[in-house]
Design brief:
The complex is a heterodimer. Chain A is α+β, with helices and mostly antiparallel strands. Chain A has a single domain, classed as Mth169, Chain: A (2-Layer Sandwich), CATH 3.30.1280. Chain A has two helices and three strands; from the N terminus they run βαβαβ. Chain A has helices at 25-33, 60-75, and strands spanning 8-18, 49-57, 81-88. A three-stranded antiparallel beta sheet of chain A has the order 2-1-3, covered by helices on one side. By secondary structure, chain B is of the alpha/beta class. Chain B has one domain (3-231): Rossmann fold, CATH 3.40.50.880. Helices cover 24% and strands 25% of the residues of chain B. Chain B is built from five helices and eleven strands, in the order E-H-E-E-H-E-H-E-E-E-E-H-E-E-E-H. In chain B, the strands form two sheets. Chain B has a nine-stranded mixed beta sheet, sandwiched between helices. A two-stranded antiparallel ribbon of chain B has the order 5-8. In chain B, helix 1 (16-29) links the parallel strand 1 and strand 2 (35-41). Classes of the chains: A alpha+beta, B alpha/beta. The interface between A and B is medium-sized, with 11 and 20 residues.
């Protein structure tokens, strides 16, 4: 960030989801409930978390990096989860 | 000097008094050197003077985000990491196990139970390994009946970690039947040195014949002896 640059607030969506191959008890339970409710042809259910943040940064990439650090350190457990970050100005 | 064991209290812990009481019962019933069990607030930054530490069950920090996710950043956890690295006995019971995995002091993670089923039952557990501070005095193959009481006890880790845990004798306890979907029915694991142990069952709730079970006493007895050894107060050690 250059001297004098003002930080901007970015709305950031952090989607925390289980890594591929990790069993998903919540997704499996939801999926099993679907046929009984008449929802045929709906499958591959995976349940995760959506976490919204407001991040101050000089630009969208800076906001993404800060949100990524938050996700890596706290929001996701790297043993079983990964995160996807979407930044909107 | 009396050996000292600290039971860490996070906001939301709820088994700390059970642990302290059970350790007293075990020490009285068993031929175990005196150990003073004391509560340690999670905001404390030092564990100096303690010879063993227990992270008890409960809902540390409300279990918000994930069980243990906030607790791992409690001030006491940095001291605990140093204590564990120096070989100090550390046992995490239920929520304490979840905190230890989140903190990276034990491998794997505890997911929601298969079928999203909260389990509250006395279950069969086999002692698989005697190389942890909790099972050092128990012959592998010993069967115990221990209470479980959890929603997130479904032990998960990657295939390489699972293979290493099995090969290195670090699967400490295994359910005799599937309880929650855990990989290989794992109920408890330890670190490489065996001084850090996590388990979902509650040995402290199985230490009084009055409440119907005493199988937890052999585990806590081993922990008390490990504590005494650490303090240098063990008789004949």
């Amino acid at each position: 960030m250059r001297e004098g640059d003002a930080d901007v607030r970015f709305e950031v969506l952090v989607e925390v989801r289980l890594r591929p191959g990790i069993a998903d008890p919540q997704g499996a339970t939801v999926e099993r409930a679907l046929p009984a409710l008449g929802f045929e042809g709906v499958g591959a259910v995976r349940v995760g978390k959506a976490i919204r943040l407001s991040v101050e940064a000089a630009d969208a990439e800076g906001a993404r990096a800060r949100a990524g650090a938050v996700a890596d350190r706290l929001l996701a457990n790297p043993v079983i989860e990964e995160s996807v970050i979407t930044v909107t100005p | 000097m009396t050996a000292r064991l600290g039971v860490v209290v996070f906001p939301g812990s709820n088994c700390e008094h059970d642990v302290v009481r059970a350790l007293g019962l075990v020490a009285a019933a068993d031929d175990v050197p005196a150990v003073a069990a004391e509560l340690v607030w999670h905001g404390q930054r030092s564990l100096a003077g303690y010879d063993a530490v227990v992270l008890p069950g409960g809902f540390a920090h409300g279990d918000y985000l994930r069980p243990g996710a906030i607790a791992r950043f409690s001030p006491v956890m940095e001291a605990l990491a140093g204590f564990a690295a120096a070989g100090g006995p550390v046992v995490g019971i239920c929520n304490g196990f979840q905190v230890l995995t989140e903190a990276g002091l034990l491998p794997g993670a505890l997911q929601k139970n298969r079928g999203l089923r909260f389990v509250c039952a006395t279950v069969g557990v086999t002692v698989e390994s005697d190389r942890s501070v909790l099972t050092a005095d128990v012959a592998p193959g010993t069967r115990l009946a221990l209470p479980v009481n959890h929603f997130e006890g479904n032990f998960t880790c990657d295939a390489a970690t699972l293979a290493a845990l099995e090969a290195e004798g670090r699967v400490v306890l295994r359910y005799t039947e599937d309880v929650n979907g855990s990989a290989r029915r794992i109920a408890g694991v330890c670190n490489e040195a065996g001084n850090v142990v996590g388990l979902m069952p509650h040995p402290e709730r199985a230490c009084d014949a009055l409440t119907g079970a005493t199988d937890g006493m052999v585990l806590l007895g081993a922990l008390l002896r490990a504590t005494a050894r650490r303090a240098g107060t063990a008789v004949g050690a």
